[in-house]
Amino acid sequence: MTLPSILADNPRLDRWLNFAAAGKVEVSTGRVELGQGVLTAMTQIAAEELDVAFERITVRSGDTDRTPNEGYTAGSQSMQAGSVALRAACAETRALFLEEAAQRLGCAAAELLVRDGRILRNGEATQFDYWSLAPAVSLAREATGSAPPKAAADYAVVGRSAARIDLPAKLFGEAVFVHDMILDGMAHARVVRQPNRGAALGFIDEAAIRRAARGSISFVRESDFLAIVGDDETAVEAAAAAAVDRVHWRGVERPSALQQEANWLLQRPSIDRVIGAPEPDSARGLQSYEATYTRGHLAHASIAPSCALALYRDGHLTVWTHCQGVYPLRAALSRMLKLDASAISVRHMQGPGCYGHNGADDAAADAAAIAVRMPGRPIRARWRRQEEFAFEPVSPAMVVKVRAALDAAGHPVDWTTEIWSGTHQGRPGGGATLLAAEALPDPPPVPAPIDVPEAAGGGATRNGEPLYDMAAKRIVHHLVPEVPRRTSALRSLGAMPNIFALESFIDELAERAKQDPIAFRLARLSDPRARRVIERAAKMANWSETEVHANRGKALFAKGIGFSQYKNRAAYAAVIVELEVEESIRLLRAWCAADPGLAVNPDAVINQLEGGIIQSASWVLKEHVRFDNASGGPVDWETYPVLRFSEVPEIAIELVASDSDLPLGVGEATAGPTAAAIGNAASRALGIRLRDLPLTRERIMTKLLAQ
Amino acid sequence: MPQTVAFTVNGHAVEVVVPHDDTPLLDVLRNHLRLTGTRFGCGLEQCGCCIVLIDGAPVKSCGRAIASVAGRNVTTIEGLGTPEKPHPLQQAFLEEQAGQCGYCLSGIVISAKALLDRNPAPTRAEIARALDDNLCRCGTHNRILRAIEKAAVRLRQGGRT
């Protein structure tokens, strides 16, 4: 059997697990807990393959000193790639122990099995278990991939819902987040942010800032990096708030209101390429249809601002962070601080859900930059709420133009998706820089404009190609290097605007052909797994039995559908929503059918799918990073509103059974389909096509008045 | 001028010395008393992460000056229950697996307690409205609503508050 790629990169078995403590198994994963339940799922995987009780397993995660390097916990890859590596490592370990036991018992390994860590021979207890054999079985060896994992039919732990191991501590208010860490002698820090790369620090009204602090604070300054540090967080916070207007900068650039609209991208220089098949002769001369869709910039808008702790002692730097990739961050810190990577330990601690690349890495860089200048002193750098909104990377605005040649029945036979977007790859490990590094002396060069490669699912091009059958499809990608604000990865990257565009376009074609949107989709969709989720969602929502477009009093009611297979290779999901439109859109219900392949922890899969629906609904109905307010961008929950409890629809989710033993990433699978379903339902209710996100009341009114 | 403020937290009398009487209650809880279960979310009284009960009423502790808490009873998430003896709300949240990152949960559970204390049989819409001061970014809203409904039923049937 081939070694899973992550196991090939981290082949030493003792990097993945050990039996050092009697009766316990310590498992390691490079994946980190972001609230998605990954540590619980990894525990299930290990319990299953080792035949050890779930409770005996502890998981170590995201620590450059001790866990495998799995890059980032991102892209819905933890289960699809990470769990498969852990599974293979555990299967091989189990086989090694059985070989050792077989040799000692003088029998064939086939006569042996493991039950909760004890080795049984033909069903009878032996004197051996993992822990008694552990001294004789060295895991300081490389995996060979020689032991096949269990067959899915034999699963007893995987595939059954398990309670999340991280949740109790959160409900009892324990100090689980990096924000809650308190180290002896710790100093609190806030950075006075350089407004933009190249802006120069001018006059600092230190006296006024100290007065505002009403307590002891000190300044850490080097080049254009300025931080306020002190023992008392209240004083440091007050000083940081005052510093916003009392520190002067030269060379400040502000984004303009024009730049907040996605169409601004169309006038900018771009790096262009074409991916896919050329237009076949058969498509030429057919009737064609074209439509353009847009989406503005989005914020991650984590529930709390980023935070990190750092301690530099005896030439070694330790950083505690809620970032998504401890190894890439270590590499970026090494470059910024000119400190060898071996002198840096980066440890993951949980934080507020990030949904992508938010301020976490930059807060870690802040703490580290201050810590190396104050050796021996633990530094806690916490961003301010306003700072997180103003300085975290945003998801880039996108313009997506779809053009298709149609056959006589109105079905597409040739398809072009043309995309304009800034990059979705602004991570420090991917060549981009840390904010602190830009302010410190000798700032790194401006990163070259690159986007996530198609091999990793693509950035702006993600899901740009529809799954529907047709003669030829292609993507024309315009990567726009100039962006009004730093852009990077947000849950589903380009897939949300692309699926919104593709699935809106399909609905438009169905309307033109006067066909039911679901029947229209199924007529050109041969992938059986895709068909099954669409058919199941339609059944759940009583699609065929319900008048799709009905008037009840003043409000207009409608249902709409959206579908995708995330990245065209992860989970399949179909979402149907029902909404009413009066002055604005109100979501009533959502139904989702998804095929996640092997669902390691089905309840956690459903939780992720549902979270994706709600977050996407919030993006579509409310969210837009605007630059036309007094602060030149969002600074709080009033300038960046998100969906609230009373605005959330009822949601029903069903997993479509799959006989696959491969898990497919689910965390981002519903983002695109939900956006499309809302757009299709609202367009149907109003009788006008809505192509520009977000679908705020203001935008809808503008569109209606223009009719 | 340092000030001494005396109040009650989770049933225990405490006295804290703070540099100023307008120090936010949240800072006192987290940094002076090391009760970090009450989370910092925005410091702007907008997100609800830091909600605690003061004499039974939900209050955003980031915007509440410590002086105004003198002599009063503060309840934080640490005062509700323990893993061994969970509050019915905590129990119900665990049963419904109502959470993802969990950062908002302290404030939400406290808001829910305040609601059920004044309205033991709320409708789902009433629960949702009562939680509109609390933001959740992961999208676990429906699980949270179900958990609170479940806890309300148990409390009405005689569970402890």
Task: List its traits.
A: about 700 residues; alpha+beta; Aldehyde Oxidoreductase, domain 4; about 30% helix; B: alpha+beta; Ubiquitin-like (UB roll); DNA polymerase, domain 1; five-stranded mixed beta sheet; about 35% helix
Notes on the protein architecture:
The complex is a heterodimer of chains A (about 700) and B (about 160). With about 700 residues, chain A is α+β, with helices and mostly antiparallel strands. Chain A has three domains: about 5-160, 2-Layer Sandwich (Aldehyde Oxidoreductase, domain 4), CATH 3.30.365; about 180-250 and about 300-390, Aldehyde oxidase/xanthine dehydrogenase, molybdopterin binding domain (Aldehyde Oxidoreductase, domain 4); about 400-425 and about 460-705, Aldehyde Oxidoreductase, domain 4 (2-Layer Sandwich), CATH 3.30.365. In chain A, about 30% of the residues lie in helices and about 25% in strands. Chain A has a seven-stranded mixed beta sheet, sandwiched between helices. In chain A, a hairpin with a 3-residue loop joins strand 23 (about 570-580) and strand 24. Chain A is globular and about 80 Å long. Chain A starts with a helix and ends with a helix. With about 160 residues, chain B is α+β, with helices and mostly antiparallel strands. Helices cover about 35% and strands about 15% of the residues of chain B. Chain B has helices spanning about 25-30, 90-95, 105-120, 125-130, 140-155, and strands at about 5-10, 10-20, 50-55, 55-60, 75. In chain B, helix 2 (about 90-95) crosses helix 5. Chain B is globular. At the A-B interface, helix 5, helix 7 and helix 15 of A face helix 1, helix 2, helix 3, helix 4 and helix 5 of B.
